[in-house]
Amino acid sequence: MTRRHAVIVDDERLARREMRTLLEEAHAAAVRVVGEAATVADAARLVEATDADLVFLDISLGHESGFDLLPRLGADVEVVFVTAHDAHAIRAFQVNALDYLLKPVDPARLAATIDRLSRDRTGSAVEPARPLTSDDRLFLRLDGARAFVRVGDIVLLQAAGDESLVRLVHRPAAMRTSRALGAWEERLPERSFVRVHRSSIVNLEHVLRVEEWSHASYHVYLRGIAEPVVMSRRYGARIRSRLG
């Protein structure tokens, strides 16, 4: 197993010390703590200087927000959020591939996080995540940058090899993410999202119309996207029944 290089970001020195102790005493084989920071600027510099690939990030950093660090991290840096009381943030993070820890950090919960991160990296199976709802917000890497995305704002998903292209209602240009189309289909709300082709999933909330194109396929027109999506006839009955 590859050892992760971690930076702890918290504005409270005692909290940083407690997290370091938990990691070094129980998870030294999996995680090496390479530094600590109390501010967004210091954290960004430290991650770059140490080439860290894991950050334990407190949400509240005095007058700053841990969210402000995210755009300054490389796409290969994993983030585990830490929060003392923000239930809304916990709800958001539960639906993502990333993880969260609630203060005070429970050693068993931390162990589960380290195990999950280790299994994700090695490609081993992980526990299936719960289904999403349209109001859930995902924390995604899109074209190498991080962004929060409301599930209901996803208009179209298209396969791109082992990855996928995401098109949003407010940003219709295709953006690449590492999540495969099959992984999306397993978690997206079935009442809103439907596969119309082996390489495309559409959000029914953003379908404008469906037109017959040939004896073998249809064109699906989506809000904000000029070009139609091809729907094969074998998927046609499914989407027609949902649209009435």
Describe this structure in words.
With 244 residues, this protein is an alpha/beta fold. It has helices at residues 13-26, 40-50, 87-94, 107-122, 181-187, 233-243, and strands at residues 4-9, 31-37, 54-58, 60-61, 64-65, 78-83, 99-102, 137-142, 145-150, 154-160, 163-168, 175-177, 193-197, 200-203, 207-214, 217-222, 229-232. It has 2 domains: 4-122, Response regulator (Rossmann fold, 3-Layer(aba) Sandwich); 137-243, OB fold (Dihydrolipoamide Acetyltransferase, E2P) (Beta Barrel), CATH 2.40.50.1020. The strands form 5 sheets. It has a 5-stranded parallel sheet, sandwiched between helices. A 5-stranded antiparallel sheet has the order 12-11-10-14-13. It has a 3-stranded antiparallel sheet with strand order 15-16-17. A hairpin with a 2-residue loop joins β8 (137-142) and β9. The longest helix is centred in the middle third of the chain and has 16 residues, at 107-122.
Give a brief description.
This protein is α/β, with parallel strands linked by helices and 244 residues long.
